[in-house]
Amino acid sequence: MSRIRILSEHLANQIAAGEVVERPASVVKELLENSLDAGADRVDIQVEGGGTRLVRIVDNGIGMDGDDVLLSLERHATSKLTDESQLGAIATLGFRGEALPSIGSVSRMTILSRIREAATGTRADIRYGILHGVHEDGCARGTIIEVRSLFGNLPARKKFLKTIRTELSHIDEVIRSQSLAHQLVAFSLQVEGRKVFSFPAADLEQRVRDVFRYQDTLLPVQAAIDGEDGLQVSGYLLLPDAAPSSRLRILVNSRPVQDRMIRHAVMEGLQGFLMKGHQPAGALLLEVAPELVDVNVHPAKREIRFRNAGEVHRFMVRAVARAIQQHQNQVRSELFSVPEQGAAVATGPGSNPFADNQPRQPAHQQTVPMEPETDPPTPRTMEPAADVFPYDEPVRPQPIVSQPEKQAEFSGLTLIGQFLQLYLLCERDGQLVVIDQHAAHERILYQRLRHGYEQREIPSQSLMFPVTIELGPDHAETLEKEIEAVAALGIQVEYFGDTTWVIKAVPALVSQLSPQDVLTDILDGLRNRSSTGLSGVVPECIDTLLASMACKAAIKAGNRLQPEEMVELLKQMENSQVFSHCPHGRPVIKTFSRQEIGKWFHRT
Ligand code: ADP
Ligand code: MG
Q1: Domain encompassing residue 150
Q2: Of 101 and 391, which is predicted with more confidence?
Q3: 519 C-alpha vs ligand 1 centroid, how far in Å?
Q4: Best of 70, 78, 113, 182 to mutate for ligand 1, by most ligand atoms within 8 A of CB?
Q5: Does any ligand 1 atom lie closer than 6 A to the CB of residue 86?
Q6: Whose CA is nearest to atom 20 of ligand 1?
Q7: pLDDT per residue over 401-453, tens digit each?
Q8: Is 103 in the pocket of ligand 1 (CB under 6 A)?
Q9: Are residues 151 and 240 part of one domain?
Q10: Is residue 510 located within the same domain as residue 577?
Q11: Per-residue b/e over 207-244, b at no fewer than 16 CB within 10 Å?
Q12: Is the CB–ligand 1 distance for residue 377 below 6 Å?
């Protein structure tokens, strides 16, 4: 007798369940996808016991008739794929026809469903893979699926589940992230009979606010490439400093995915804007021609594969960088535009060359201090930066707010004074604007250094003793391909023989580092560089160096500023391409509205 046997249907379902139904959240995910595929515009989910006691999902989608209810329980039964040609371009969330039979094989499941045309619905009870009865039953149009005693027949699997709290947080995440792609669908979640959230039908912005519980500024991301690739992204990023514990949710063709490539692109687009150790946060919805993305890589469809990953990466870096630039322009116009019927201002609208609020290159290129050690940073009237934090100074009688004799103004901002020798206090349109002088100046200097770097105006320094370096094939290939770019970065390398190269000069900026490290870092940067040409991405180590140089050269906390100096700082902020955050991602400006301040004093 042959030893090889075909698995029973029952066993095959249980094996499939091992892949598809990992934990209660997978049940929620599969059932939710079915409801959305069925065109529901309202989906309500109830959970008990972390999802193992009960998952109940009610939708108002197209429903199933009696035959379909039974068919839906068969393995590889789906209404979503009819022939092989569709597999290359999947447009629904489900397609494998595995979910219902898999879930049914590891739980006690009830399906109750009705189509619009039918007077009554159909109810089917399945117990651990065995159909226990089908009968007519009344119900509203749509489908109700109840899953009880999940893994009741698989004690080993149940043991692997984490605490109820962890399982609930996975369930919560599944619904939140999926809800981002379906803003017109209302979602609600109840746990042990208590409402956790209820998202009404909304637009994307409102849905993002609901999902992230976020009220602050959102940075819209919107970009598209026409043509056959049909790449498109829309979404919102949260201000990096406003929601430190939020995460980035990525959806590709309405499917929440974990994609390191896109994540990486977002971080790259946020370079010099994200606080060290902080994660980007927000929701990005990509649309790609279905044939250019493979979603059938993972049974739970969490991962995907792009045919043209490089292009998608470049596209995303640019889209995110542009969102930030738009945000800068927006903040600039809110902060520096002269109010319509404002009081007399120092710089009238006619003398403001930047009133158009277009993105612009950093101004005053000729004053770019490439070597701030020798060339004192502007404004030149500032005292040499004493590296002392004001709280460390001996207490001496000094006004906390030093008020300028006559009120200085700039572009609609009236200077109130300097607070703690660290913050500029300004007033505009009934708002109090607080500016961190060090962070502000740090960003201005960083932008100039970066600009100089991108323009390849990098002074290089010859090494007294040239050093050799062994390059692996990847690095050697990059070096040969990018030899001009490498030279322009102020590093001089020559081929020596075999796998050996000689470094003869390094960028003066990094002359204190090991030349070998500098070269490999630059090569890594060039190899992974995605944005060709404009506003290229600066290699990580160089970026860190630029930021720390800017920090050292910037005015410090404790530097007392004269009114002219404060105005000069504001002017430079306005002229800086990016100014709202320091290069480490800390905010530069904080604004308090009249209402906000009124609330402190219970004035309503
Ligand atoms: P898939 O979603 O991959 O097709 P499933 O096992 O999840 O496989 O579902 C099988 C079929 O059952 C679906 O193709 C669909 O026709 C039907 N179905 C499942 N859930 C629903 C629902 N909530 N509303 C309407 N039809 C459903
Ligand atoms: Mg499905």
Answers
A1: 9-199
A2: 101
A3: 55
A4: 78
A5: no
A6: 34
A7: 665 556 788 888 999 999 999 999 999 988 999 999 999 999 998 988 888 77
A8: no
A9: no
A10: yes
A11: bbbbbbebeeebbbbeeebeeebebbbbbbbbbbbebe
A12: no
Q: Residue 182 burial (CB < 10 Å; 0-12/13-18/19+)?
A: buried
Q: How confident is the model at residue 575, as a pLDDT?
A: 92
CATH code at position 241:
3.30.230.10
Which ligand is located closest to the Cα atom of residue 17? 1
Q: How many CB atoms lie within 10 A of CB 356?
A: 9
Last residue of a domain, one of 301, 317, 334: 334
- The identity of residue 89, as a single letter, is A
- Given a cut of 70, whether residue 219 has pLDDT beyond it is yes
pTM for the whole thing? Answer: 0.76
| CA–centroid distance, residue 34 to ligand 2 (Å) | 5
Identify whether the C-beta of residue 166 lies closer than 8 Å to the C-beta of residue 22.
Answer: no
Asked if residue 443 belongs to a domain, the reply is yes
- Measuring CA to CA, how many Å separate 288 from each of 47, 203, 221, 253, 315? 34, 21, 16, 7, 12
- Which ligand lies nearest the alpha carbon of 65? 1
100 lines ligand 1 (CB under 6 A): yes
| 386 Rama class: left (phi>0) / alpha (psi -120 to 50) / beta | beta
The number of folded domains in the chain is 3
Average pLDDT, the chain: 82
Report how far residue 323's alpha carbon sits from residue 582's, in angstroms, rounded to the nearest whole number: 17
* Closest ligand 1 atom, residue 145 Cα: 23
Assign 247 to helix, strand or coil: coil
- Residue 306 Cα to ligand 2 midpoint, Å, equals 22
pLDDT the model gives residue 403? 57
Pocket test residue of 43, 100, 111, 114 for ligand 1, highest count of atoms within 8 A of CB: 100
Cβ–Cβ under 8 Å, residues 86 and 296 = no
Tell me the C-alpha distance between 96 and 9, whole Å. 16
Task: Report the amino acid identity of residue 13.
Answer: N
Verify that 305 and 434 share a domain, yes or no: no
Cβ of 104 less than 6 Å from ligand 1: no
**How many helices and strands, by DSSP H and E, does the chain display?**
16, 24
Alpha-carbon distance of 294 to 315, in angstroms, equals 19
**SS3 at position 577:** coil
* Closest C-alpha residue for ligand 1 atom 13: 78
- For the Cβ of 105 lying below 6 angstroms from any atom of ligand 1, the answer is no
Residue where one domain finishes, among candidates 285, 317, 334? 334
Q: What CATH number is given to the structural domain containing 591?
A: 3.30.1370.100
DSSP E strand boundaries for 182-231: 186-191, 194-199, 218-224
Please report how many Cα atoms fall inside a 13 Å half-sphere around the Cα of residue 319, on the Cβ side.
26
Q: Which residues on neighbouring strands pair with residue 198, listed in sequence order?
A: 188
Between 530 and 512, the more confident residue is 512
Give the contacts of 159 (CB within 8 A, at least 6 positions apart): none
Residues 460 and 314 grouped into a single domain: no
**Residues β-bridged to residue 237:** 219, 282
Instruction: Report the alpha-carbon distance of residue 451 to residue 534 in Å, rounded.
Output: 10
Is there an atom of ligand 1 within 6 Å of 38 CB? yes
